[in-house]
Amino acid sequence: MLVAEEVVEIRVLRRQGKSIREIARMLDVSRNTVRRYLRIEELPRYERAARSSKLDPYQHYIDERVKAAAPDWIPATVLLRELRALGYPGGYSILKDHLATLRPLAKPEPLIRFETDPGRQMQVDFATIRRGRDRLSAFIATLGWSRGLCRIRNR
């Protein structure tokens, strides 16, 4: 199967008046390949048939168990034990991967910001940074109402 750029190049060369044999020689493909890609209208897509899994016969049971346990979560090891009792021949990894698709996404907590009037709030921090024998002391104050910084350095 040719990539999209090669298919487009085949069409461009054909519009320029090149023969199928010339195009095949230039792109190092067979003449039948050139003919096939000139016949089709759209770019070809590789599609694969969905494969069945050992877990497929037990999907409904798993979905029901997860819904029944909501908002709590059932560990994959517990479900694996239950499925093995029902005759499940597969392993832990397949089950764990399937459960990952069922787990609800955690919604981030909303950020609650608050503003204060000028002169009401300030966050203060003090740090000492050692550089060899010299030391650097820093006092940092952040004003809550403006997010402005005040820095005082002392040696």
Provide the descriptors you would attach to this structure in a database record.
155 residues, flat, 6 helices, alpha+beta, three-stranded antiparallel sheet
Write up this protein.
- This protein is α+β, with helices and mostly antiparallel strands.
- It contains six helices and three strands, in the order ααααααβββ.
- It has a three-stranded antiparallel beta sheet with strand order 1-2-3, with no helix packed on it.
- Strand 2 and strand 3 form a beta hairpin.
- Helix 2 (20-27) crosses helix 3 (31-39) and helix 5 crosses helix 6 (92-102).
- The longest helix has 12 residues, at 4-15.
- The radius of gyration is 33 Å and the shape is flat.
- The termini are far apart.
- Helix-strand pattern, N to C? HHHHHHEEE
Overall pLDDT metric: 84
What is the oligomeric state here? single chain
Could you give the order of strands across the largest sheet?
1-2-3
- Span from first to last CA? 71 Å
Biggest pleated sheet = 3 strands, antiparallel
Question: What is the approximate shape?
Answer: flat
| C-alpha-based Rg, rounded | 33 Å
Helical content class: 40-55%
Number of helices: 6
How would you classify the helix and strand content by structural class?
Answer: alpha+beta
Strand portion, in percent?
A: 15-25%
What is the strand tally? 3
Unreliable spans:
none
